[in-house]
Amino acid sequence: MVLESLEEIPxxxxxxxxxxxxxTPATLPVEYINVNYQEDTLQDDSQHMQLKCSNLPYPFxxxxxxxxxIKDAQILYDGPIGSKIxxxxxxxYGNEIDYRFNPGDTIGILxxxxxxxxxxxxxxxxxxxxxxxxxxxxIKNGTAKKxxxxxxxVPIQSSPRAILRDCLDLRSVPKKLFLRSLAEYTADKDExxxxxxxxxxxxxxxxxxxxxxxxxxxLDILDLFPSCIPTLSLLIEHLPRLKPRPYSIANSPLSDxxxxxxxxxxxxxxxxxATSFLTEKVTSFLENPEKTQQLSFYFRESNQFRFDYExxxxxxxxxxxxxxxxxxxxHKDELMKEKTTKLGSTWLFVGSTCxxxxxxxDELLDYQITGxxxxxxxxxxxxxxxxxxxxxxxQDQLRINALEVVEQLTKKDTNLYVCxxxxxxxxxxxxxxxxxxxxxxxxxxxxxxxxIKEMRSAGRYKEDIWV
Length: 467
Ligand SMILES: Cc1cc2nc3c(=O)[nH]c(=O)nc-3n(C[C@H](O)[C@H](O)[C@H](O)COP(=O)(O)OP(=O)(O)OC[C@H]3O[C@@H](n4cnc5c(N)ncnc54)[C@H](O)[C@@H]3O)c2cc1C
Ligand SMILES: NC(=O)c1ccc[n+]([C@@H]2O[C@H](COP(=O)([O-])OP(=O)(O)OC[C@H]3O[C@@H](n4cnc5c(N)ncnc54)[C@H](OP(=O)(O)O)[C@@H]3O)[C@@H](O)[C@H]2O)c1
Description:
Layout: H1 2-15, H2 17-21, E1 33-41, E2 66-77, E3 84-92, E4 106-109, H3 115-122, E5 133-139, E6 157-158, H4 160-166, H5 176-183, H6 189-199, H7 204-212, H8 218-224, H9 232-238, E7 245-248, E8 259-267, H10 273-287, E9 294-299, E10 313-318, H11 323-338, E11 346-352, H12 361-370, E12 375-380, H13 394-400, H14 402-409, E13 415-421, H15 425-441, H16 445-457, E14 461-466
Parallel strand pairs: 10-11, 10-13, 11-12, 13-14
Antiparallel strand pairs: 1-5, 2-3, 2-9, 3-8, 4-7, 4-9, 5-6
Bound molecules: flavin-adenine dinucleotide and NADP nicotinamide-adenine-dinucleotide phosphate.
């Protein structure tokens, strides 16, 4: 990025000569936050800094934030096919809370930025000599800002390092007004005029192309504009909260009510904030299991993606999207042992890159033998083994089994559960379900859409969408 960025400013200047001649920079936002540094350093920063904020809401929280410990972890898959690593992680929360989760529930994990990202920002902000110094955040005296409010997600006392670590989303895409403010802290004339121009009405098209479409983050801006040296207070004013990340629970409370199991999909290159943070925790745990690795998390409210085990279910999971279904199946397995509940049938469609990356494949095959699963339909998109069959994606399996699937789906009580990416895959699965309906019911596109719509409004088409 750095090399590329050094060449980019002259290119932008060359290509935007017309706009640069005449543009009106956005109005400069009024600064309103004061950061006061003390001589002492913050003695204990072990707690996540958002926990020091009063009245901070947590999205969809069903419980307060609790502290868990990594109890077990394993790398489920680490190549060679695909560009992702799959990790399983068990968090023990002991007696921290008396809360019974449901299969299909999710937790929100409080995450931190990576040391690299923090160091990069620390090396680029004004007047922070001691990143561990205690700093007090307050509203600037006499600020002209109307109704100035301190952000809820930054504690009124902490340290620059702790704020950058736990509170601010350093990888958020900067808004135009933030660029306008950053221009005031940019020494180089050319860089400054590009920032001003990007913040202007005339620069909207360029802002969309250069920033939004390329998802350039605040960290990228620091690379692109090396003479930009903002203050910590400006970052507190403009950077959004580092949000907790949701993860699906992959186990049943019946097997162990004080533990949650998660399955993480981690991009090998350019992994994100939470996945880097969690991978580092797991790596430290695996290197030294005796040393406690803590994670702060909360249970999120149950939604419609709840296992209705007494009814028939068709489950469709992509890659690690099998996660909540492992919880469903473990739950059904436990209930089958108890023999007290009448249980519905369960069909599972699962799509993986190859046999080795198929998460808990042996367990799924066993579930087929024990009857927990009535049908298991696998597909492998990139497995070189010819024995794997011709099904590359879950849609291939759905199409070939369309008659049975539709017969099952159109029974009044059957629930369909889909767990996949929301932008592309879940839509393409819905499209395939529609095709199956058209083919099997010999109906029109509109009629098939109506069937899906009715399933949705009856709460029988359930999706867990990972965005
Ligand atoms: C309800 C719900 C349940 C979820 N359950 C799980 C779960 O059980 N397991 C799980 O791994 N994730 C799950 N996710 C996704 C998870 O919340 C994070 O979004 C994900 O781990 C990436 O977070 P990050 O902070 O590392 O990436 P960010 O820093 O937020 O984003 C970086 C970019 O990389 C993309 N990205 C990062 N990792 C991947 C990946 N592996 N595949 C595709 N794109 C990726 C992001 O979409 C984004 O565009 C769930 C999401 C939701 C909404
Ligand atoms: N946004 C996030 O932060 C985030 C994080 C983690 C996971 N996810 C999503 O969660 C799901 C599981 O991810 P993962 O990393 O575990 O698995 P993955 O490795 O991304 O994908 C597993 C399988 O999905 C197949 N696939 C790709 N596009 C498809 C489509 N349109 N329809 C059906 N199958 C398709 C892949 O086939 P090919 O080999 O042909 O590509 C591959 O076999 C995915 O939907 C992923 O995008 C999102």
